[in-house]
Design goal:
heterodimer, A: 220 residues, mainly alpha, 7 helices, B: mainly alpha, 59% helix
Chain lengths: 220, 153
Amino acid sequence: MKYEVFTNSKLKFKTMSKKSIYVLAVIALTFTACKNEKKTEDHHEGESTEMHDISDGHHDNEGEHAEENRNNEASNDKNSATSAMVDGYLEIKNGLVSDDKIVAAKGGKSLLNAFASFNMESLSKEQHSEYMEIVENATEQAEHIVKSPIDHQREHFEILSNDMNDLIALLGTEKTLYQDFCPMANNGKGAIWLSETEEIKNPFYGSKMMKCGKMQKQIN
Amino acid sequence: MKKYLKKIIIVLVIAFIGIQFIPRTYNLSDTIPENDISNTLDIPENIQLIFETSCYDCHSNNTEYPWYNMIQPISYFMEGHITEGKEELNFSEIGSYSNRKLKSKLKSIINQIDDEEMPMFSYTIIHRKAILSEENKKQIKKWVSINLNNISK
């Protein structure tokens, strides 16, 4: 395709200087290149919808289920495979605690990598569909955290924290974590976050309200 | 120098004409899809109208195209915007979202409105009607909150 464009322009503009032809070729190439990139993206999108359809059966009781998990004692299974995900999440959290958007974005990347390299074969059928739903949502939040200013990062971190909490309840972790609650976040409705330290350090407000919040439970 | 300038202009004009032949895809559909918001959530007419006026051009399967969409590269950039917008949130496909995803999207609607990120400035600068009034914002946020509570139950 790229060659075609090149030869066409060559034929048409034989009389023009070499330089002009190059300029035109570059313009044409830029456009064809962009088009191609777009196509692969679309393809991916199709794939993810397909995956999504599989998990559709679980919709109705999904919300309920997640609530239940949150209220129950977190699963005590020690799962080392989730460590990379928890590490990525905590990197985001610590970035936000120190009002550092770059660290938070880096954590977002680590989390995306951890999701991508997780081996799903170890999951049971029921675990698999819930895992897919959680990770689909969490991935979107992480992608936004990678590319957004800090206020947005915090908004997406709030949603991500719920997902991570459910994920840990589903798969377990070998790490000791604390589930903390900030009554002011989420437009005053309150929101949870996970921390590796017992001491409260608020990621939703950072230095503005470092000590705001209370520990709700210990995981492991 | 003048000779070069002339050549550059000729090249640009030809390139401009050339790119007009890049194929366009249109984001248009005549049917209300099964997964449309109207089939999924209880949505009053006034809220539906606000969404249609301020959001649907980029967040549904139907875009109301302006005349200048006939011109490349405007059409090309617009297409990119629409694809990206629909990927983030598509009111025509909301029924296919998991409850978890739907909840996140509803929360993000409130956040985007509060942060005055959406409808975005580059869009409202042309589409003046799409600007949300304070009353509009209040209505949407109230409706979203009710639906968020319903999903949590």
